[in-house]
User: What shape does this take?
Amino acid sequence: MRQTDTTSMKDQFFSTAGQALDAGLFWRSNLTKAVRRKDFKGTLWGVLGLSVLLFFYVWQHMQVVKLGYEVQSLKSDKQHLTNEYYYLKYKMHDVNSLSKVEKIAHEQLGMETPRTDQMVILSDSDPIYPRWFNFWTSTMKKAEKK
Assistant: This one.
């Protein structure tokens, strides 16, 4: 019983393969007829369409690669500028520090620390107003008294 199953499968396989070969011969004979008639119009359009699609695919891929390199370059530039910013900020704080200013004032400009008899201390208790404001407030006080 098993042998009959395998022989029937072989027969079925060979019949299917024969049908596939016959189909291939059909397509091959159509191709042969097209070559004899020199009918390449469909083939040329197909090749041209495929070439255009392939060109756009490759072009798009190259653009993505190019933009990737550009992004990487800009990231590197940003990192460099960030480092430079923090370095300059550090230098600015160093230059503006009171100890640095005092050192420059003493050494390069020849300034000296003032003595106590050279200082004048102003009181913060009396606010300083312009004269027109004093006139206006005194006028307002006189008006309130009446």
